[in-house]
Write a structure and sequence with these properties.
Elements (H helix, E strand, L loop, with lengths): L1 E7 L2 E6 L10 H6 L7 E4 L8 H30 L23 H9 L8 H9 L2 E8 L3 E8 L2 E8 L4 H11 L12 E8 L4 E8 L6 H7 L4 H19 L11 E2 L8 E3 L5 E3 L6 E4 L4 E3 L14 H4 L8 H21 L24 H10 L14 H13 L10 H18 L1
Antiparallel strand pairs: 1-2, 2-3, 4-5, 5-6, 6-8, 7-8, 9-12, 10-11, 12-13
Amino acid sequence: MCHYNGKSNDTYLIACCKNYDLCNKDLVLKLRDKKGPVYIEIPWSAESGLSSWELALLIAGPICMVCLAVMFGLSMWGNGNRPRYRCPESPTDAPDQPILGAVSLRDMIDMTTSGSGSGLPLLVQRSIARQIQLVETIGKGRFGEVWRGRWRGENVAVKIFSSREERSWFREAEIYQTVMLRHDNILGFIAADNKDNGTWTQLWLITDYHENGSLFDFLNRCTVDVPGMIRMALSIATGLAHLHMEIVGTQGKPAIAHRDLKSKNILVKANGTCAIGDLGLAVRHDVATDTVDIPLNNRVGTKRYMAPEVLEETINMNHFDSFKRGDVYAFGLILWEIARRCNVGGIYDEYQLPFFDLVPSDPTIDEMRRVVCVDRQRPSIPNRWQACSTLHTMSKVMKECWYQNAAARLTALRIKKTLANLAASEILKL
């Protein structure tokens, strides 16, 4: 360390030492005693002084260093007191882990939509769609394919439309995002996105995944007991009643008719209840103008499940209740499919589609019209149903669903109440 001892005549006197810390404190005493170390004399002249820019640099440097240190300290303090968010990685072999830490897809939807059921924001939908890994094909149809996909540890169903079916894809995504549509017995919508790599376009619709598959698949594999039959029937009726119901209010929901209700468009959940899916042909009722919002596509539904008035083309397209009555007719046929597979005392029927014994596997409109409208035939009721009070009641409900006169058919809400009473009586029996 050095000690500046001042200026003497025309020279600077500087004494240095490095024996121990702060040793220059003793240099002054040694100088006074004239026993100090050898002094180095540096000639003094005006030229030996610092230039203006060197002086500025000498002053500004330490100030800048202090400012940087203060800013860095404030930054570290702010980060320490603010919650930090990390974007989770999405490896291809992602384990079964909850999405976003402890938040599942359902939790995310409930938080984001605030209970409105109108769907996730568009950017969130696209972000989810881009992170899905397709695992296996689980179904095919006229529109395209259905895959089981994975999104950060959760299974999802991915319905991939061909580019020819863009209207169906757009319509279904639009209907699913209707305000207040979300319901336990309506297939849960997650996201919609279009994938275009320049050579082909895929239209994705992402929904909840149910490993039991469609009601058609489930009934082909399994039978149901009496409580299971009622649980399935009641859940479908509840979903249909919600679909048909208009909810009035600022967050209201228009009445919606499905128009393609069948066992292949109903999913079986893990708890044995069902959820109605495939809303690509659905129509909405605009109560303000009393008009029906009919989609612009060429599909008209599934011929086997068409109501007589649809087959005869006598349906009033301007009257919304006409479409609801068509849904009720199809629901009656679905009840028949479920009831055939009801195992009572070890006795049940093999699975069959409605009118299996009257028309071919892929009937034409004319063939269905002849059977349903001209001959006025309906699926046959097995004799064994008369011996079981529950099956007997179910047979009465389905007959009231498929009346030739559409106005005489039950409403979805009436069916729901009847089946709820039937479920309550079954519980009392237990």
